[in-house]
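Supplementary notes for students who missed Thursday's class. We covered one full example, reproduced here. Read the sequence, then the structure, then the short commentary at the end.
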Amino acid sequence: MPNSAVRPRVSRKNYGGGRCGDIEPLLADLTRLSAAAPGRIVLREEAIARCLPLAEQIARRFAGRGASFDDLLQVARLGLVHAVDRFDPVDGAPFLAFAVPIIVGEVRRFFRDGTWELRVPRRVIEIQQLLGPATEALTQQLGRPPIARQIAAELGFDLGEVTQALVARNAYRTAPI
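Structure (token representation):
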């Protein structure tokens, strides 16, 4: 299956690296403390607070895609907490390069698993996400909207799987009776 995900560009300019960009020394201090150390909670909270603008910027990137901004912000902040807790300064990678993919992944997981009104299998969701670009490309080529069989041939999937994905679009948002 083709991977249509675009890797986020990580830079201090793109992600407000001012307060969060120089956080590695603070995180190094945090990792040196044991879980029961009295100052660990304060350092952890400071690290998270300094990087909240990063989580907000990432949440804004995904706004307007069918979920409320408050939900996206909460999920992005949860991803930030995971990044702060998992970061290991010994690896040598900058925190932004580590945190951005974790936060973005958390938000994408939320869209994949949490925004559907009805339970839809992951495979069907993955195929459904490929339908838009394939349909646009075929519409340009054919001069008309393609039929399901043509979409299936374009994507290299079984006709039944593509049909399920087309029907699954209706499960994203349901209408009241």
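Commentary. The CA atoms of residues 137 and 143 lie 10 Å apart. The chain has a mean pLDDT of 80. If anything here is unclear, bring it to office hours.
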